[in-house]
Write a structure and sequence with these properties.
Elements: H1 2-7, E1 14-18, E2 21-25, E3 31-36, H2 41-50, E4 67-71, H3 80-98, E5 100-103, H4 106-135, H5 142-149, H6 151-170, E6 175-181, E7 190-192, E8 196-198, E9 205-208, H7 211-220, H8 226-236, H9 241-251, H10 263-305
Antiparallel strand pairs: 1-2, 2-3, 3-4, 5-6, 6-9, 7-8
């Protein structure tokens, strides 16, 4: 790394770590983020530049160097509400600029559906087995007892997720929207300072366009207002009923919580999972109720028109 810094006359005044990267500050108070070269980024950076996408920072040095040098912008302190809105704006911008339709066969949809049904069935069986094991044990650890008290929350979410999976599959929607995705949408990977941008694009891919907002909600759901951000998202990208079902079936899937010897950390882990399930389920039920009310109004209006 020193050879690259010398090549570009960057002197080290301070060095620190952020995630897995080095932050270099020179004697002129300029900061740089240094990464090991990732040639896979050439394609996405070229595309982002061509599309005039503003939420990325291109590296400064020669693409043949063994390291990549990026300008580093400090993250200003904003609350999660504001930062969440900026992240939604950023992912919508990329999705709209790169959106394409992809045709799937009924066989491909069936294969995906069968895979997800199995995952949900396995998850349900896991928690049923775990419940039985705890109930048949001679003594309860605090974490086991805590999980047992709230085990029904896991069953509720699995059933709602299965319901939306079935609903999505029933549409047999063979033409689905895809886009480029960041692949790591989180508060830690997004900066708001002199520039708004995602730090890392190493997980970028082209896939079903809802994958980024799904992963953002599952990572940061306890820190954001799910309803208002979903409204903001839909003000930019209107979702079909099928797409909403896909979003909710993925959002509602509980994580597989395991219990170890450390009861305190297990209780914290279980508490966070329960809080997320409750929050995501309340969000889902509210959105579902609003959709049903809208459908009823439209149905009533159609009958009046007739």
């Amino acid at each position: 790394m020193n050879e690259i810094l010398d090549k570009y006359s960057i002197s080290i005044h301070k060095i620190s770590k952020y995630l897995n990267y080095s932050i270099i500050e020179d004697y002129q108070n300029k900061k740089y983020l240094i990464k090991i070269k990732d040639s896979n980024l050439d394609k996405i950076f070229s595309y982002l530049k061509e599309m005039d996408y503003p939420y990325y920072v291109p590296f400064l040095n020669d693409k043949n160097d063994s390291y990549q040098i990026y300008p580093y912008y400090e993250d200003h302190i904003y609350d999660n509400s504001y930062k969440g809105k900026e992240i939604i704006n950023a992912i919508c911008d990329l999705e709209l600029k790169s959106m394409e339709y992809h045709d799937y066969s009924l066989e491909q949809l069936k294969e995906y559906y069968d895979q997800k049904v199995k995952e949900l069935d396995d998850l349900m069986n896991y928690y049923l087995s775990l419940q039985e094991t705890i109930e048949n044990s001679n003594s309860f650890s605090p974490s086991s007892y805590f999980l047992l008290l709230h085990i029904s929350e896991f069953y509720h979410n699995i059933r709602f997720s299965r319901y939306e999976l079935e609903r999505w599959y029933s549409f047999e929607e063979k033409r689905m929207r895809t886009s480029y995705l960041i692949g790591d949408v989180s508060f830690s990977n997004f900066r708001i300072g002199d520039k708004k941008y995602f730090i890392d694009y190493k997980n970028y891919k082209r896939d079903f366009f809802l994958e980024d907002i799904i992963s953002f909600y599952r990572k940061e759901g306890l820190l954001i207002d799910m309803i208002s951000l979903f409204d903001l998202y839909q003000s930019k990208i209107s979702l079909t009923r099928s797409e909403k079902s896909f979003f909710f079936f993925r959002l509602l899937i509980p994580n597989k919580v395991s219990i170890h010897d450390n009861s305190y950390s297990d209780c914290i882990k279980i508490r966070r999972e329960i809080d997320f399930m409750n929050k995501s389920r309340e969000f889902y039920l509210k959105e579902n109720k609003e959709d049903e009310e809208t459908n009823q109004k439209e149905f009533k209006q159609e009958n009046e028109d007739i």
